[in-house]
Amino acid sequence: xxxxxxxxxxxxxxxxxxxxxxxxPTPIQSQTIPVALKRQDVLGCAQTGTGKxxxxxxPILNRLxxxxxxxxxxxxxxxxxxxxxxLAIQIGSSFATYGKHLxxxxxxxxxxxxxxxxxxxxxxxxxxxxxxxxxxxxxxxQGCIQLDKLEVFVLDEADRMLxxxxxxxxxxxxxxxxxxxQSLFFSxxxxxxxxxxxxxxxTDPVRVDVTPKTRSVKKIKQQVVFxxxxxxxxxxxxxxxxxDDVRAIVFTKxxxxxxxxxxxxxxxxxxxxxIHGNKSQNARQRALDAFRNQFVExxxxxxxxxxxIDIEGVTHVINFDLPMEPEAYVHRIGRTGxxxxxxxxxxxxxxxxxxxxxxxxxxxxxxxxxxxxLSVALPSPEPKTSGSGSGRKSSGAGRxxxxxxxxxxxxxxxxGAGEDAVGSEKxxxxxxxxxxxxxxxxxxxxKSSRAGDSSQKKAVKKTGEGQRASSGSEGRAVEATxxxxxPQRKGKNARSRENQSxx
Length: 503
Ligand code: AMP
Description:
Layout: H1 11-19, H2 27-37, E1 42-45, H3 52-65, E2 78-81, H4 85-98, E3 106-109, H5 116-124, E4 128-131, H6 133-141, E5 152-155, H7 158-163, H8 167-175, E6 182-187, H9 192-201, E7 206-209, H10 215-218, E8 220-226, H11 232-241, E9 248-251, H12 255-267, E10 272-275, H13 281-292, E11 298-301, H14 303-306, E12 316-319, H15 326-333, E13 343-349, H16 354-364, H17 383-401, H18 407-415, H19 420-451, H20 456-485, H21 492-502
Parallel strand pairs: 1-6, 1-7, 2-4, 2-5, 3-4, 5-6, 8-13, 9-11, 9-12, 10-11, 12-13
Helix pairs in contact: 2-3, 3-4, 6-8, 15-16, 19-20
The structure holds adenosine monophosphate.
């Protein structure tokens, strides 16, 4: 494999790389950098964690650094588009690190914060702009930035852009690019919509592929723990508090549960911060910095907020909730085991999540080993999944019965394996129904006593009918509510934007 010296980068870049202690280029770097230095287009299939930021940043800095041109107001020479603010900030700091011995300026352009300082930076003139699509389009429409002098365009994490519904924005931006330019394109997967964009964007690209589907997950020790929904918080605390030197990212499905989990961990004496789309940009950055600088040991995050986060030394990724999109699993667990380090990924799987687990295992083409020490018995999944899933389920159940004195054991002993949280839910519902019935009967008795003894028998009879009638109308009301709650069919973009805002 080539060393960085053999890549013929200019001396200030060599010095910056040496001070970062990079010795050997990663595969994406050794394949991309020579091609990009020759100003050819690149179609790179790679995930974060493979060193792809340097793969595009070094050739851009090499090109601009050897030209010694001053920056022009509003007209950058290079543009990097990233799906999230966090990733844009990260890419910006990589440009600062690799370009620290060069006299080049870069600016970050992303939403969620005031635009004034971004507009000022563009007006002053920068060589490179690193942007998220929405804010960039805003500033383009306001005439604060023009792309007619652009020489290099980078589209990073195109598959994420697609997931987040950014494709229409991307297409609008691409229309504004000069025909004569170099384009570098990176995506972890190549869905048909991505291929369509590459056809529009790239001219005779050199294809660089360093991400076979299962490669990145193989170096990470993966485990699944079967647990009831209610038992997840306790299990999380147990896992995190009994291990030394933990630096964990915990993924939850919703913003609310990210807050809840972080608060709960803090109350229990662990240091945690939450990061999700409802937090202001500053709060998100503060949480990230606190985690990066080890002021907190646990970052609780939703998917969108955590995309592209590159933090060294993450020992554990814990899927508090399994992701609904199996691809997200690969991205999540890729936050650990970065740059060749070892990592552990533990996924909690509760009732209702077994199908998600199966989809993930299908995608990564391997069965995730069960942590039998920690797993409890779950109720049988829906019949359609019981066929092939039964083997996995029974492992969980078996484990629960032999669990030494844990909470799961008490539950299985008192209710029998397989009841757990669902059993208690059923109990609650029937208690509620009994209480409602008693209330109705009491009310009828009061009525009938007012109406006098003679009509009492009649009233009691009516009560029964009334009850049936009211439960009938209640049933219809519930049905109507269910109908009104039935999700409307939405366009793909609408759904993506909704997902984005949810996270
Ligand atoms: P990226 O995929 O660009 O997010 O990079 C992942 C991590 O690998 C970052 O922390 C980089 O600093 C690190 N890295 C990138 N290239 C190299 C290299 N050639 N040698 C060692 N570490 C690297």
